[in-house]
Amino acid sequence: MMEQNKQKKLVLIVDDDVDFLTQNKMLLANEGFEVVTAEGQVEAEKALKEINPDLVISDLMMENFDGGFWISETVKKKNPTTPVILVTSVTRELGLKFDTTTEDERSWIKADKLLNKPIRFEQLLKEVQKLLK
User: Fold this and answer.
1) What is the C-alpha to C-alpha distance for residues 57 and 37, in angstroms, rounded to an integer?
2) 5 domain-assigned
3) How far apart are the C-alpha atoms of 74 and 52, rounded to whole Å?
4) Is the separation of the CB atoms in 110 and 84 below 8 Å?
5) For residue 109, how far is the Cα from the chain centroid?
6) Engineering a disulfide at 117: which of 40, 69, 89, 113 sits with its beta carbon 3.0 to 4.6 angstroms away?
7) What is the pLDDT of residues 12-42, one digit of tens each?
8) Domain tally for the chain?
9) Where are the beta strands (DSSP E) in the chain?
10) Which residue range(s) make up the domain with 62?
11) C-alpha distance from residue 113 to each of 5, 82, 101, 109 (Å)
């Protein structure tokens, strides 16, 4: 028998919505990922000092309006190849529209993908798998 020596990919999920954290942590863990959660920017800052996630999923607006941008930038400074998915309801709540489709947008957003809440888990999983390839 071949031995499976494939290490689980570590995903950090940052959101001040505990339901979003709990639900997605469970679903990603069921898909074989190791998942660490942080309830907001302050917890995420502490976590990022201790772990090197393979991928980060972060809410955009938490304690600070731009918390997700800050987390994204911090992750990219530490390791520019770590994919970051920003999730937000800012488009629905404030009507602000921005995306990560162009190089220019990605350069200031510092994220690899932007998803609007509510997000179906299948959609999130697809993006996680695509970015970790």
Assistant:
1) 9
2) no
3) 12
4) yes
5) 13
6) 89
7) 999 999 999 999 999 999 999 999 999 999 9
8) 1
9) 10-14, 34-38, 55-59, 84-88, 113-116
10) 10-131
11) 29, 12, 8, 9
| Residue 4 domain-assigned (yes or no) | no
The dihedrals phi and psi of 40, each to the nearest 5 degrees, come to 110, 175
Classify residue 44 by burial, with Cβ atoms within 10 Å: 0-12, 13-18, 19+: buried
What residues contact residue 51 under an 8 Å CB cut-off, 6+ apart? 10, 12, 36
Domain harbouring 17, CATH code: 3.40.50.2300
> pTM, whole model, 2 decimals?
0.84
Whether 76 is covered by a domain: the verdict is yes
Please state, in angstroms and rounded to a whole number, the distance separating the CA atoms of residues 57 and 12.
6
CA dist., res. 8 & res. 54, Å (int): 10
